[in-house]
Amino acid sequence: MICFYVKKDYPELHCPGEILNNDMSLILSVFMQRKLIVSIALFSLYAPWVMADVPVLSVEFTETKAPLSVMQQQRAYTESSAIVTYADGRKIAYPLTYNVLYSSGDQIGDWKAGAIVDKNGNVLQTARISETGATAQGPFHAHSPDANSLMQQGDNIFLLTHLEYDTEAANADPGKPMLDMYGALPMVMNLASLKQDSRTGRLTAFDLQNVDMSGVEGLWTPCAGELTPWNTHIGGEEYEPDAHVFEKKPLTAMNLYRMTPGQLSPNGANPYKYGMITEVSVNSSGKTGATKHYAMGRLSNELAHVMPDSRTAYKGDDGNDVVLTMFVADKPKDLTSGSLYAAKLQQTDATNGGRFSIQWIKLGHAANNEIDALVVGGIKFSDIFAVASNTEYRANPVAHAGFKPVYTYTGTGGSTTLEYLKLRDGMEQAAAFLETRRFAAYLGATTEFTRMEGATSNKVDKKLYLAMSYVHKGMLDGRNGERPQDDIRLTGDPMDLECGIVYQSSLQSAQVDTSGNPIRSQWVAADLQALLMGARKPAAQTAYGRHDKCDTDKMANPDNLKYSDAMRTLFIGEDSSNHLNNFLWAYNVDSRKTVRIATNRAGAEWTGLQAVDNLNGFAYLMSNIQHPGAAADLRSYQRKIPDFDVFRAGIDQRGVVGYIGGLPAIKRPKEEVHNKHDEN
């Protein structure tokens, strides 16, 4: 096979994957017209494994065009190449490929991917989806893979993957329609054992096991996650159960796991066991251990992103009217105790996504065992707060002296409305770590964020990146209604803002909290401003993306974020109801160019992003296909797409765990490897 290597800007560089997919005569004519100097070399000279040890100056990506045909809209694929510029002057194009490791329900070794189990590890065969609702027919295999942590332990390679939820299932009554299964089942993590081809880098899953969660009473809606600097996995449990509601109502999904149907805590599932950050360790033989970090606070945890100091972590809080929190551990590589903070924003500009300075309110300090003891001891919401509705307060404010107005998202089962809270005596620590969002609002933190999802960081430039998937409601000027404060007042086209924003923060040292006490971290977010913004669909953009509401050529509704220090690239996965096909984008922080590098099956979200710069000589971008073709995600397109049922039937609706490959290891020159900032 032949590779054309051109010593010129990368649009004139062509390698085997491109030549196979393009017309050779056209390529040659372009070469002749521009009088380019073309050198011909055997492909093996530029195979990824050959270049793995050569330092890299830059990585750029060519574009994957938006899908046009129905067949393209039903597929997940990339047409992009990575253009790698090496320190020795060579510039090589590496065609990218999307690779499937396994799909939901696949038999890998002795286990089926995504199988939902009870506490004894038995696969659930049926599920009552509410205490009074219908019964779903199993067995169930979750179609929503999310977080990935690709890791090497000794000589073995493992991939730990969250399964967030099942999309739909058959009704046990065959005469009734399919059932929506979101939040109706306990969830799982899978651990895959992988083989790596030493010549091509291709990964293959040959064994799969369910991670035992019985020691932490099961897993609730696990969402995003990441590999820690000390080679463990951490991930969030999203949309925490509203403990005010589930004090008097059984938590059905987790009762299924615990085999305690219809029971309230303490005999049934306790809502305060869920909505946590879960850390999973894996040893070289594949044995796992799970810990829930009560000290990091209880929220709708998208994930916890850990800074290079191995102490400071930022947590995405998914929902409307949510809060930004920061955790600072007492010791590096140990998340079992530390201090928890909530952000208070001061807006300095309302335009272009806004600009803000950030102050940090300290919520408290705790260790896991302290909060776990409260939960085991049977603490309830009513032990922490007295609560009054808006109607009750206004009817008799004197009787509710000392109550404070709070407007926040309250979690699964609850509603986001104005309520009045009064902290009971001695309950500060319980409130901070079990009712984190409510307590943050109680102390005056900003709780107007909408759909705060992914978080990642650029350690060299000391930047934190946050995805605000949908910017609406309380973040817009004049939309606060009954909210007791108005810290975020964005102006501009509401539809542009509805398409989402990626924000960035400067990370600084020598910061103090609102009480004037020093924050023991060199990685404190001091400000917030828009880095990338979506936009409404231009009227003239009709050749493609005809069903999209947001600009097809711009990022829309960012969710998963991962940054590669070696590639100097922020990878952005969409979860958009405004793009029929969700895209994967690469934003180069030096060139400031954003390039579409992959497109997903209709209705599917790109999840599980992980940028692996070097695993035994190869680089990978882990990326999953979540809920493809799901009815809930395509509902708004039902009247727009001709022959919709046929279109949807043509989509493989299984979730996929996979990765984008084809890259050599990306290594920066030695002088660029070390962070110029103090990490202690």
User: What low-confidence regions span 5 or more consecutive residues with pLDDT below 50?
Assistant: 1-45, 673-680
Give the termini separation: 50 Å
Mean pLDDT: 91
Strand content: 35-45%
Rg, rounded, reads 25 Å
> Quick one: biggest sheet?
10 strands, antiparallel
DSSP strand tally = 42
- Structural class based on helices, strands and sheet pairing: mainly beta
Shape: globular
How large is the count of helical segments? 13
Q: What portion of residues is helical?
A: 10-25%
Structure, explained:
- This protein is mainly beta.
- It has a domain at 1-46.
- It is built from 13 helices and 42 strands.
- The strands form eleven sheets. Strands 21, 22, 24, 25, 26, 31, 32, 33, 34 and 35 form a ten-stranded antiparallel sheet that branches.
- Helix 8 (428-434) packs across helix 9.
- The two termini are 50 Å apart.
- The model is unreliable at 1-45 and 673-680 (pLDDT under 50).
Properties at a glance:
mainly beta; 10-stranded antiparallel sheet; 4-stranded antiparallel sheet; 13 helices; disordered N terminus; disordered C terminus
